[in-house]
From TrEMBL:
PROSITE patterns: PROKAR_LIPOPROTEIN. GO terms for cellular component: periplasmic space. This is NitT/TauT family transport system substrate-binding protein. Residues 1-23 form the signal peptide. Residues 47-270 form the Solute-binding protein family 3/N-terminal domain. InterPro entries: Solute-binding_3/MltF_N, SsuA/THI5. Gene3D superfamilies: Periplasmic binding protein-like II (3.40.190.10). It comes from the Bacteria. It comes from Modestobacter roseus.
Length: 331
């Protein structure tokens, strides 16, 4: 898939990141990684700063830390938990973090603005159907919404206008032949969706786990799964870094990629271990962690799907010109 010639120009809700990028370019001091000396075979352990989120999607990294996969590569991970992908991207370009857990959409928006970030590794994907997807539209149990066609004329919430949820919902509706302009979109943060559904303030709400399980526990239902409708196991999250870090630390990048790949493959094959580790770094209870829908952990970058997502950014006027997958993935 090819987009218009990429000139990194955009009009998005994260315009301030471009200013941060300009301020950070060329002025970052030595990171812990650069100062620690060699790692891997025969070298010391290097500390790597990672910005992350308190969600199940990030569990593979924590599991890899527990299993020693990063230690095997001569790396020690120091995670910092933040609340948004934008905060993580800002930290990447300012040099606070070496790597950060962000969605492909968020990374693409930032890159389109001239923020010098690139995707280093894959991380997670959505489920395969409404029965196992973990980021979905939920509704009350007596709702008449059971398919994309039922969303026309309804009031639907997304966690942020112009963000991942809106982009994916519009793309899925287009794919299902539903005019998305007939849907009334409003903003409701993911944690507030269960209460909004129960109170009848919205007809359906886009949310993720553990709030999907909360809605199911209160008698609600999954009404539509936009991302897995686009494609089963559709790529969602990644680990990004700054272009400056790539240039200055190619060996660390390679070792981080290797450790994350091993971690993601282990996570995919060991869901019980994922359920056990989630409560250790999130506020999700052991009970909910034992029952909630889990992300699909994905170790290989899916360039065709990333290209498609970058195309969505242009189609739905999130950015003027989006990067291709080849431009977004660290070279």
């Amino acid at each position: 898939m090819s987009h218009r010639p990429f000139t990194r120009r955009a009009t998005t809700t994260v315009a301030g990141l471009a200013v941060v990028a300009l301020a950070a370019t060329g002025c970052g001091g030595d990171s812990d990684t650069e100062a620690s000396g060699g790692g891997g075979e025969g070298g010391g352990t290097e500390t790597v700063q990672v910005g992350t989120l308190p969600i199940a999607n990030a569990a593979a990294m924590y599991l890899g830390m527990e299993q020693g996969f990063f230690e095997d590569e001569g790396l020690e991970i120091e995670p910092t938990v933040l609340q948004t992908g934008n905060d993580i991207i800002t930290g990447l370009v300012s040099g606070d973090f070496d790597f950060g857990f962000v969605g492909y959409i968020s990374a693409g928006i930032a890159a389109a603005q001239g923020v010098p970030v690139c995707v280093a590794t894959a991380s997670d994907a959505t489920g395969t159907t409404t029965e196992d997807d973990w980021q979905v539209l939920v509704a009350s149990g007596d709702s008449d919404i059971s398919s994309a066609a039922d969303l026309a004329g309804k009031t639907i919430s997304v966690n942020g206008l112009g963000g991942v949820a809106e982009v994916m919902l519009k793309a899925a509706l287009d794919q299902e032949g539903v005019d998305w302009s007939t849907v009334n979109l409003i903003e409701v943060p993911f944690p507030e969706v269960p209460a909004a559904v129960e109170a009848g303030r919205i007809d359906a709400g886009y949310t993720s786990e553990p709030f999907v399980t909360t809605v199911l526990d209160q008698g609600g239902k999954v009404a539509f799964a936009p991302q897995s409708t686009i494609a089963p196991e559709y790529p969602n999250g990644s680990y990004a870094t700054s272009e400056q870090f790539v240039q200055q630390n190619p060996d660390v990048l390679e070792r981080f990629e290797s450790a994350m790949t091993t971690s993601l493959e282990y996570a995919r094959e060991n869901p019980d271990a994922i359920r056990e580790i989630i409560p250790t770094y999130t506020q999700i209870s052991e009970d909910v962690a034992s029952r909630m829908r889990l992300p699909v952990y994905q170790s290989e970058l899916q360039n065709d799907a990333i290209d498609q997502q970058m195309g969505f950014l242009e189609t739905y006027d999130i950015v003027d010109e989006a990067p291709t997958a080849d431009e977004l993935v660290c070279g």
